[in-house]
Amino acid sequence: MSIPIIDLSQFQISNQVRRQNVVKNIYQACHEIGFMYIQNSGISPDLLEQVFSASKSFFDSPLAVKEQLAWNNEFINTGYVGLEREHLNPNQPGDLKEAFNIKNDIIINNFSSPILLTNNPVISTFYNACTELANTVLQAFALALELPEYFFTTRHNQKNHTLRLLHYPPLQTSPKPGQVRAGEHSDYGSLTLLFQHAVGGLEVQTTRKEWIAAPLIPGMVLVNTGDLMQRWTNHIFCSTKHRVMIPNDERVKKSRYSIAFFCHPNDDTEIACLESCSQRQSPIYPPILAGEYLLSSLQLTY
Asked: What's the predicted TM-score (pTM) here?
C-alpha cells in the first residue's frame, strides 16, 4: 500500500465533477490508510523555508536559552521540549528529539524572548496559512462524510491548533534499547499537516501492520487524520500509527527538521459518532469533549 497524492487545487474550482472526485479520493485515503500527500496546498515554498530557517536558528541556541521557554504543563502545551522529555510511545525510552510548541496568535505575539522565533511575523503568517489549509481539508472531509460543507470548520473556529517545530539531532552516542527518534503513536486531534525537510525517516503503519516509508516529496504536504476524527467517524476515517526511526546510514550524523501543525477542534466541541457513520456499526466510543481528550492524551505523553 502506498500513500496517495491528491491535488487540492481541483477541490477549489467550480467544476463539480472534479471537486467531487477529490472528495472521493480523500475519503478513500482517510478510510484505507489515514495519510495522503497534498499537492498545490497554497502554502508558499519561500514562506516554508523561512520557517525552517527560524526553527534551525532556535534549536542552534544554547540549551540554557531554550530552557527559558520550557514547556511547563499540558494545560498550556506551549514552549520548549528537551531531548527525551517526551515519550510518544509510553512503553519506550524518551524520544531523541527536541521540539517547540506554539499554540495560537496570542501566544505567538506575546512571548518575550531574546530568540528570533516566537514573535517573528513569519511564524504567525505560517500559522494562519496552515489554518487556512486545514480548513479546506476539513471542508472536503465534511462533504466526504455527507455533512454540510462547513460542519467541521465551524467546530474549529477558535484556532485551538498547535504548531510544532521539531529537531532530531545527530546521534552522538548509542541509543537505549527500544529508543527511537519519535516513538510509535497516533495524533490526538482532527488532522495533522506535516512538513519535512531534507532528511526523512518517517514511517507509517498500514492496516496489515506493515511499516512503509513516508518520504519527503518536494512541494507537497503530508496530511493524516487523528484520534478525534477517528472517534467522530466511528473508524470510517482511521488514525494511523506512525514513528520516526533512527537511520542506519550516514543520515544518522545529520540533523532532521520537520514542522507539524496539529489541528484541534474547539475545546467545548462534543466528539460523538456522526449519524452518517453509525449505519455500518453501532458507535464504538462514548461522547467526549475535545479539550478533555487532548488533556488526557498529553498527560500520558509527558
From this structure: 0.93
> To 5 degrees, how large is the angle CA 295–CA 297–CA 299?
70
What are the chain's domains? 5-301 (2.60.120.330)
Give the contacts of 202 (CB within 8 A, at least 6 positions apart).
194, 196, 213, 214, 215, 222, 242, 243, 244, 258
Could you list the pLDDT tens digit for every one of the 302 residues in the chain?
Answer: 689 999 999 998 888 999 999 999 999 999 999 999 999 999 999 999 999 999 999 999 999 988 888 888 877 788 899 999 988 988 899 999 999 999 865 454 444 444 445 556 888 899 999 999 999 999 999 999 999 999 999 999 999 999 999 999 998 888 999 999 999 999 999 999 999 988 888 999 998 899 999 999 999 999 999 999 999 999 999 999 999 998 888 888 899 999 999 999 999 999 999 998 988 889 999 999 999 999 999 888 76
